[in-house]
Design goal:
Layout lengths: L10 E7 L7 E5 L12 E6 L4 H5 L7 E5 L2 E2 L5 H9 L4 E7 L20 H26 L3 H4 L4
Antiparallel strand pairs: 1-6, 2-3, 3-4, 4-5, 4-6
């Protein structure tokens, strides 16, 4: 060995008992709202304090949820994954790929029982706003060419 450590992500099986506030974590991802580029997986975005997941202690922010009650989450939309969580029952079995804590995603993401698409909408508005600003700048540049250069030689 060369002394470098290469740790493959570990897969963990766990069962969480749904509490009064659900399972106690927010999810992001899906084929329609990728959290990580070129990965349509479902990820844990936030663990809610005193929720079922926090009390259990094994699930961490940044973990990828591979399956719910044996149902694989590959190639699901975000809303389909949320529906699986909603209909999973009181005791929810999860297969989770533990990974590094990811800090590049949204912190105010959807709860396990909330299917709003605020993050996707926010992203869309940001892209549209940037496109409008860029188009306006390009139009301004076209209309306001260097005035001295347009008058001819002096």
């Amino acid at each position: 060995m060369n002394g470098s450590a290469h740790n493959a992500p570990s897969v963990l099986e766990m069962t969480l008992k749904r509490g009064p506030a659900g399972l106690g974590f927010n999810i992001v991802g899906g084929v329609d709202q990728q959290y990580i580029m070129n990965d349509s997986g479902i990820y844990v975005a936030k663990i809610k304090e005193d929720g079922a997941a926090a009390l259990d202690g094994r699930l961490q922010e940044g973990d990828k949820i591979l399956a719910i009650n044996g149902q694989n989450l590959d190639n699901l939309s975000h809303s389909a994954a949320v529906e699986l969580f909603r209909s999973a029952g009181e005791d929810v079995h999860l297969r989770v790929q533990q990974g590094p804590n990811l800090q590049n995603g949204p912190t105010s993401s959807r709860a396990d029982g909330d299917c709003s698409s605020a993050f996707g909408t926010w992203t869309m508005y940001t892209v549209v706003a940037l496109a409008v600003i860029a188009a306006g700048f390009m139009a301004y540049k076209r209309l306001h060419v260097n005035p001295r250069a347009s008058r001819g030689p002096f």
